[in-house]
Design a protein that fits this description.
The structure is a homodimer.
Chain A lengths: L2 H8 L7 E6 L14 H4 L3 H9 L1 E6 L9 H8 L11 H8 L9 E10 L5 E3 L7 H11 L3 E2 L2 E9 L2 E7 L30 H18 L7 E9 L6 H5 L3 E5 L2 H9 L3 E2 L6 H11 L5 E6 L1 H7 L3 H19 L5 E5 L16 E7 L12 H4 L5 E4 L3 H8 L9
Parallel strand pairs in A: 1-11, 1-12, 2-14, 9-10, 9-11
Antiparallel strand pairs in A: 2-13, 3-4, 3-7, 3-8, 5-6, 6-7, 12-13
Helix pairs in contact in A: 5-9, 10-12, 11-12
């Protein structure tokens, strides 16, 4: 079954409302000292109450054993096949700093790096220069025009930046200049398809000019480019689901991902309370809400088990403000697991909960990985969560007579 | 998701080690007198301890209801789609007796059979002649050259043999001569594609000559051929997984299967103790070990419930020698179920256990089919076991940014 085509065929616009609360990096692993995961350790009475009321399960964003990045993890939650609908690295970085890409633009991810007098790379990250320094250097490189292509350079963080190539006839199928190791020169950008000849030429010229402009800026005296890509053209959520979806997210990458699938993006603050307040304010104006909470993932990435527990407890404390709105279908899910003991994203399936008047509850009484093993949703693909949410909000008609 | 492509993209070589212990025909069915399966009957404290420590589940080698042969069962465990990556019968038989096949060779499985004076088949197995007799008759047929094609004939067991056709221009797409019943004459080999005309001609000539040479050897006075096939070209495990895999198996078919996917094959003895000793000796030199134990399957095929229980207990007793090596990821699985009450392979899902530092344990406390129903792996496809093992040994990078 092609789920998106099925949704496009069966979905109808109704006044009912769906809230999808995405707790980034939600799933975890046991602390070896206690044998309990972050969710099992946290005091989360409101999430536990939802688990009692709703139907629970574990979801694989991509597949068993596969650790997803943020892009694939979120696309799966929105119902898109994350392998088919891949987003290039350059585009994801651009989207992550709120850079708007036109349909013909090509974006690439850049690193400032250090090379010696023979052009041999000695540090692929230029000693992780400050974000401030990065912004300064980007100004130097920004604004070139090569062969009628305008080139914009945007700082990201530390040594990272984004280059956007704008103009006619650019095809992003080229290799990267980053050799992925030191002790060698950077690579020439080569074409992977004949149509990409202009892209390769412009990129190689840009790198050469950048080298000249940066000559006196050691350690950041060279650039490495990779992930040349164009904004993908996905069918949008309004087209597929007949929804009017709103994204509420503090971090730009998640707003960017939401825009790629056709969501509107709310203006919100920088805290969990801000996000929940924005949800309440906009609740009458939309029928689907993607509410993204980042800090569980950040704590997991930092290997800070206790902080991840604390963030979970904060989310739990804020939850009544959400449930008080009475969404017709409420999804609590994660884009991937980020166990503190692994200090990074992982392949472990992610807890998912669905709550509605019609969700056929199971016997689960706690919001945790082990408890959800026995949940009524079983083990599903994350791409199936949207169709379940749509069904529970009575937004899908019957298939076949 | 095409799992092999995904693995090829994400896998990295690391020093971590994976051991895959394949207990042939592992799954069973309850003895009607006790209501307990072979695994539930056996005293297997070490396997039970692994079940407590690791994550458990049930795996389908091909699909629900499908009884796999040894080829598909093993290919699935190695991560290959067993339907897509089919191995012809002739090749499997050749590989099963350590016959090396060249890329252009065509192998066919042969039976000696009995025909009457009118060529009507009266016994498709020639009264199951002895393996000794079979070897004698194979010598008579071995060594023909027909139309520049050299023909080698190798005895297998009882009435079974393998024919290898070697020379230019052979295409294996031909029908079989075995009518699969008695009371009729054997069939002419026909081509399924125009390019196979030479193969069909040579095979029909070989059958005619064999009939003449065997005329005085009743009951084995004719041959039946089927399963014409060429050695498949699978991507190898070193290519896909960046592993340096070693196979430890007493029986040649399993060594042959391992070679088809690019494993090295260890020299080992004929007992379980020999196999475990070989594992220990080679442990420093490889990073993936396929250790195959045959005797559970043999006991199951013989319908000998008690013997299957005994073999399970022997494996359990030997297990500490394996766990003492401290593999980063340990898989205990089977290629299919062989319930003693069915006296043969079956379609039942096979217990699978995965143990690593990062495997998110479940509540399972016993190594058995009913206990594994509640396992954290849930019900998976056997083809997913390799990606889970790779992830748990931290040999996979993130998918997407």
């Amino acid at each position: 079954m092609n789920t998106l085509n099925m949704m496009r065929e069966l979905s109808i616009a109704t006044p009912s409302k769906i809230v999808m609360l995405v707790i980034d990096g939600l799933g975890g692993l046991p602390d070896p000292r206690t044998g309990r995961t972050e969710l099992e350790t946290a005091r989360i009475p409101n999430l536990d109450a939802l688990a009692r009321k709703g139907i629970c399960g574990l979801a694989d964003p991509v597949g068993p054993g596969i650790t997803p990045g943020s892009g694939p993890g979120h696309l799966a939650l929105f119902g898109y096949d994350p392998v088919e609908c891949n987003i290039g690295r350059g585009v994801l970085e651009a989207v992550g700093i709120d850079v708007e890409l036109g349909p013909g633009d090509v974006a690439a991810r850049g690193n400032f790096c250090t090379v010696d007098e023979n052009g041999i790379s000695t540090d692929r990250r230029a000693g992780r220069i400050s974000t401030e320094k990065c912004a300064e250097l980007c100004k130097i490189l920004d604004g070139m025009t090569i062969d009628h292509i305008q080139i914009k350079v945007y700082p990201v963080r530390e040594h990272r930046f984004v280059v956007v190539f704008r103009g006619g006839g650019l095809v992003p199928d080229v290799t990267e200049s980053d050799p992925s190791r030191t002790g060698v020169t950077s690579l020439d950008i080569k074409l992977l398809r004949p149509e990409a000849v202009k892209m390769a030429d412009v990129a190689n010229h840009f790198i050469l000019q950048s080298k000249n402009l940066l000559a006196k800026h050691r350690p950041a005296n060279m650039v490495l480019l990779r992930g040349f890509s164009r904004k993908p053209r996905f069918p949008t959520m309004p087209e597929i689901y007949k929804l009017d979806p709103l994204a509420i997210a503090v971090y730009p990458m998640y707003r960017g991902l939401a825009r790629l699938v056709g969501m509107k993006v709310a203006i919100t603050g920088t805290t969990l309370a801000d996000e929940f307040a924005t949800l309440k304010q906009s609740y009458q104006d939309n029928d689907f809400f993607f509410l993204h909470v980042k800090w569980t993932d950040t704590a997991g990435e930092d290997g800070d088990f206790a902080r991840k527990v604390r963030v979970l407890e904060e989310i739990d404390a804020a939850l009544p403000a959400l449930t008080a709105l009475g969404p017709d279908a409420l999804v609590v899910a994660g884009d991937h697991s980020t166990p503190a003991v692994l200090k990074g994203h992982s392949w472990h399936p992610v807890p998912v909960l669905l709550c509605s008047e019609y969700c056929r509850p199971d016997a689960v009484t706690a919001f945790s990985e082990p408890a959800f093993l026995a949940g009524g949703l079983g083990r599903i693909s994350s791409t199936q969560i949207m169709s379940l949410a749509m069904a529970n909000a009575l937004k899908l008609t019957k298939f076949g007579a």
